[in-house]
Amino acid sequence: MRQRRDPFARQTLVPVRQLGAECAECGDTRRVYGVRLDSDGGRTDTLKGSFCSWACAEAYQGVRLGR
Ligand SMILES: [Zn+2]
After folding, report:
1. What is the 10 CA–ligand 1 centroid distance (Å)?
2. What total of structural domains would you count in the chain?
């Protein structure tokens, strides 16, 4: 997973590798990432769940996540 940018929410979506986690959407355990949300204002938040890909993250969240 590569970093993505959401220009409307003015935040950068940063994948953070998580060891010993599994994808909340498909159950893959090989390469799983949490997603940190870095806002332009300096706040950070974390997306709920861990995922193996942006496709799984978007399917699980039900929304488009940056680009
Ligand atoms: Zn997955």
Report:
1. 26
2. 1
